[in-house]
Amino acid sequence: MRRALAVALGAICASMLLVAGAQGSRARDVTPARSEADLLPDLDQETPTQLVVESDGSTPKPGYWLGFRSAVRNVGDGPLILDGSRSNTTTPFMSVTQVIERADGSERVVPGVGRMVYVASPSHSHWHYLQFDRYELERYELRRVKSARPLVADRKTGFCLGDRYRVTTRPVPHAAPDKVYRDRCGLTETGLLQLREGISVGYGDDYGAFLEGQDLPLTGLRGGRYVLVHRVNGNRHLRESSYVNDAASVLFDLRWRNGMPYLRVLRSCPDSARCAIRPLGSVDPIRTREISPAAAAVAHAAGPFFPNDTGVLGQPGAWDQVQWNLVGPYGVDAPAAWGNLIADRRPGGTGVTVAVLDTGIAYADQPPYRRSPDLAAGTFTPGYDFVDDDTSPFDLNGHGTHVASTIAEQTNNGYGLTGLAYGVRIMPVRVLDAAGNGYPDRIAAGIRYAVDHHAKVINMSLNFGPDVTAGQIPQVLGAIDYAYKRGVVVIAAAGNDGIGQVAYPARSTHALAVGATTENGCLSSFSNSGDGIDLVAPGGGSDANLVGDPNCHAGRAGKPIYQMTFLGGRVTDFAPAVDFIGTSMATAHVSAIAALAIASRAIGANPSPLLVARRLQRSSQDLGPTGYDTSYGWGLVNAAAATARGKARRPGSRRPPAGIVTARRPVLPAQYAEESSPG
């Protein structure tokens, strides 16, 4: 009998990214005096933006917090360079010196400018430079100018400095041609003795709302006007060419209604901490809007989150120009889901591990391999290579890295593209070889490994050929049952043969079978369908020939799924790939949304695979005929609806669909049953 062979389900592109080399060493002069030859940084504190209000969800009386985006950019003549060092690992901090570049190519060192400490947060852990920026709330007192004092101060532990975004809103004459500081501040590296952080000229660093203390409490404040003041380098320990732009502020009005806070921003004051002393008519007011918690679900009051990743255009926030799969009309509504998880204090699905069974992942810097530049080192949990039988599951194809990036690429780091579940841990499990092929015994072993090592979701962007039967792969089906019984969600690709039959292993009773859709909301021409298809997700490509479907125009070309991977077999050359389409890509979206739904606890603290499946199906966007059909299954997955509190609702619907239209295998009961209450 011919041996069954599984294949990866995605096309590979061939382009290249050129990266700059490291800087060489320079002569140093340790002197405290300023010289005209010094190329000093100029730190510009940007005005706080993206103000959002969230509840902490406590009962019977919830507390409320104001979150906001903070950004500091360097518009000076030279980079901000901070060197931290300590003599041994028993010292809990690094002493920091500032390195100042000079016009003659030498360097001057200013010692004793502060400390770095290793800080662990819910989403990640790395080295922070203490007291870099501070923020506070002051009461608006127009007549008593000198009496303004902080009412609420921050609880921030410091700042991880780096080149997160390029300055594009003003000219910077001496801007660096490319990012220099991008090593993520020693992420997960607690044993470092030395570390360099900094911000290049023409670049900036930012923190999103609620990230690592990027918030202030509103509970206990009376209604009235308040000033949010944000300062960088407030103690002036760092040498700059100018200190006049080290503060910015925002004036807002706070009102309480039925115990809930409502904010209206009245004006912003760039380069000034003195919004409190100016008459309202002296500064051009920004367009006012009310910021309020969601009335029906205060735990999800943060609203949509739009990160600053630059996409292929190199502009902050331009990721949404190409990632139609996350924000388009037939995307998965990622920004609203991200807001939900931020409000739950589990940003990006923090706390959930997703095992990616694939061709491997570019997960570490280990010559000749390189970690993908937009995948954080701290994202990964130990995995295994069942092809070469070792503990180094590196990718030799590019497919697995693309899939993992769709799930968990770094987000809001001012670089590259976004990952749908950017806060999850990824377990790399290599079961496919460099050609994208794999065998049942390896795949079964990979599934069991993932289960035994505490993955909560298993992503299998692979399938066997359409002629492979259940009798040929008993070990794979047995492993999927093993996962299901132990509470692990298995999600698999339906296949790329464009036929009306779901391929194995997606066809297994205890796996969620995923088809692909285009940017037009039509089934992709290559996507398998048929009885047993559970859900569809963005996979790109051209429209299928579905007569009577208004979204479909047979053969109409559509965009691919843009994501970072290495290209052309060169394991050190990374760029956003522009030719990946497939049910592989669609499967990654569903796995990411499953992880977000689990992290949100909208279906309980430890939901079973059946509850997760029900949640995704009942919150999907109905496509094609009403209810279940054999082209789209239950519909297009929707991350926002899947992570919202309360009963699942289809996007655009006031109530769930009445029931099933077409008979199918019993993953769902014949009628919608009541969901379990959140834990």
Rg (C-alpha, Å)? 26 Å
| Strand count | 31
Largest sheet: 7 strands, mixed
What is the residue-mean pLDDT, rounded to a whole number?
A: 83
Strand content: 25-35%
Could you tell me how far the N terminus lies from the C terminus, measured between alpha carbons in angstroms? 49 Å
State the helical fraction: 10-25%
The poorly predicted ranges are 10-33, 141-147, 278-289, 294-302, 653-679
Net shape: globular
**Strand pairing plus helix content: what structural class?**
alpha+beta
Number of individual domains: 2
Number of helices: 8
Detailed description of the structure:
With 679 residues, this protein is an alpha+beta fold. The protein has two domains: 233 residues, Peptidase S8/S53 domain (Rossmann fold); 253 residues, no CATH class. It contains eight helices and 31 strands. Strands 2, 3, 7, 8, 9, 10 and 14 form a seven-stranded mixed beta sheet that branches. Strand 5 and strand 6 form a beta hairpin. The C terminus is likely disordered.
